[in-house]
């Protein structure tokens, strides 16, 4: 049985790359918001966005952060990561900058968004990046990155 996960990413810049990852079908994701849905949600202000995010996170066991060039700068991505971590969900990242968008363009590797999130440790505070993996596929070409992320070529993602 596939587990339900939440995908976190910079919608405007990476929705096409995120769709490729979601379509691999390794895990079942949340229902993606369309452009119109997202515009309607954001018009409702911060509380509406937070409510929508919480509704999407409910019932998910894990948050997969799809990391593009500007993902680490996105306020709502940070919020999604923080909420997921606070709720005890599994969290990890996948760099998607080498996947091509619909224009056939690859992106630029962005910063690790987990570096910006502080978490308490036993003796000190540290970055979530010290705990959470951000996987960078080992290929330059989009097709090879996609194949690398596909279930037939990668070790199974253990989401429990």
Give structural attributes:
disordered C terminus, 7 strands, two-stranded antiparallel ribbon
Mean pLDDT: 86
Count structural domains: 1
Structural class: alpha/beta
The CATH class turns out to be Alpha Beta
Radius of gyration: 15 Å
What general form does the structure show?
globular
Number of helix segments? 5
Largest sheet: 5 strands, parallel
Description:
The chain is α/β, with parallel strands linked by helices. It has one domain: Rossmann fold. 34% of the residues lie in helices and 17% in strands. The chain contains five helices and seven strands, in the order βαβααβαββββα. The strands form two sheets. Strands 2-1-3-4-7 form a five-stranded parallel sheet. It has a two-stranded antiparallel sheet with strand order 5-6. α3 (46-57) packs across α4. The radius of gyration is 15 Å and the shape is globular.
Please give the structural blueprint:
Blueprint: E1 4-8, H1 11-23, E2 28-29, H2 35-43, H3 46-57, E3 62-67, H4 75-86, E4 90-95, E5 118-120, E6 125-127, E7 134-135, H5 142-149
Parallel strand pairs: 1-2, 1-3, 3-4, 4-7
Antiparallel strand pairs: 5-6
Helix pairs in contact: 3-4
In brief:
The protein has 160 residues and is of the alpha/beta class. It is built from five helices and seven strands.
